[in-house]
Amino acid sequence: MKTKNKKAKASKQAAQNEAAVSRAQAMALARFAVECESLEAFGHRLLAESARLKAAGFPAKRGSWRYYLERQAAVYLSGQIPGEVFKRGGNRKLPFFAWSTLPIVTCPGAGDCVDWCYSLKAWRYPAAFLRQAANTLRLRFAKRSIIEAAKNLPESTTVRLYVDGDFDSEGTALFWANIMGQRPDIAFYGYSKSLHILAAVGHRFPANYALNLSSGSMFARESAEYRAVSAMPFTRGEFLAIPIAGKHPRGFARYQSPEYHRAVREAAKAAGLVGAFSCPGECGACGHGRHMCGRVEFHNPIVIGIH
Fold first, then answer.
1. pLDDT at position 263, please?
2. The pLDDT value given to residue 262
3. Which three-class secondary structure state does DSSP give residue 163?
4. E strand or H helix at 83, and its extent?
5. How many CA atoms lie within 13 A of 120 on its CB side?
6. Hey, what's the torsion of the CAs at 235, 164, 135, 292, to 10 degrees?
7. d(CA 183, CA 150)
8. CB-count exposure of residue 256 (10 Å: 0-12, 13-18, 19+)
9. DSSP 8-state class, residue 171
10. DSSP for 24-66, written as a single string
11. In what order do the strands lie in the sheet with 97-99?
């Protein structure tokens, strides 16, 4: 009963947050994060957004947009960036350390994925949006803090780069290549559509990075960029979202359904994907402790179903 009440409360708060800040308004704030001239300018923008919500009658209660906007604005106005650089165990799906930036506005290789981007669902929760914004701003104004945080990560851990967002430039990709090279004990992995960037500088990436080519990119399989990155030694293979038939449980419950995984495998076979592996939904739950997305030697396509 407590779990059900907690979910209902969270769902209600998410609905209130969406009413306060629409997807379009959040996107405008995201674009400002990649264009603003300083941390202080971003802080002033957060205060302006909070003032708009106050005038519209939205309260500043815990968990609301106003609650987070006002607190984080004060940090930015002091010339600092709030929150952790790497977050661990943010949800049940991801037990590893994770790095994210704002989706779409940092995704130069995005194609039709902008129409169904899963990362945007997190924007119902202001803490998630502002965490993505903080790292976006770190890359622009406080790279040293990222370097120091990477130095302090535990030995032999796993880091997922870009749960949300992507390599936005060759400079950013090389920045991460250098960090990964300084921590050869850490297993880095991720998913990217910035294939033009990786095609240009991927030869500088170290052996402790595993790349999954994710669906929705502007680069077709026949493109020179796709072929070039596919041939690079750090590329594991494809991670694809494919349409499946039938009705299946929503959210994480679908991954417990044998019918869902059967539908995924059937759809993958029909699409000509040989030896497709149906993602179990929780990173680290497959591969007997060595999750498949991080295993460069496993080249079979990994797929999830969309319906």
1. 96
2. 96
3. coil
4. none
5. 18
6. -40
7. 8
8. exposed
9. H
10. HHHHHHHHHHHH-S-HHHHHHHHHHHHHHHHHTT----TTSHH
11. 87-88, 97-99, 158-161, 187-192, 209-214, 235-243, 302-306, 277-278
Angle at 104 between CA 102 and CA 106, to 5 degrees: 60
Beta bridge partners of 160: 98, 189
Residue in the block written with tokens 């923008």: 45
Give the pLDDT confidence score for residue 2 in this predicted structure.
Answer: 56
Q: What confidence score (pLDDT) does residue 114 get?
A: 93
> Could you give the angle at the alpha carbon of 290 between the alpha carbons of 289 and 295, nearest 5°?
170
- Give the pair of three-digit tokens for residue 28: 């405008």
pLDDT average per 10 residues of sequence, the chain (307 residues)? 58 78 96 98 98 96 96 98 90 83 97 91 95 98 98 96 97 98 97 97 97 94 97 96 92 92 96 95 84 95 90
- pTM of the prediction? 0.92
pLDDT in tens, 27-69: 999 999 999 999 999 999 999 999 999 999 999 999 999 999 9
- State residue 6's pLDDT score: 57
Model pLDDT, residue 17: 83
CA distance to 264, 267, 271, per residue, from 306 (Å): 9, 10, 14
The pLDDT assigned to 8 comes to: 61
Q: Are 244 and 307 in contact (CB under 8 A)?
A: yes
Q: How far apart are CA 37 and CA 280, in angstroms?
A: 42
Which residue type does 23 have? R
What region does 104 belong to: left with phi over 0, alpha with psi -120 to 50, or beta?
left
Longest pairwise C-alpha distance within the chain: 56
Q: Tokens in use for 9?
A: 């409360």
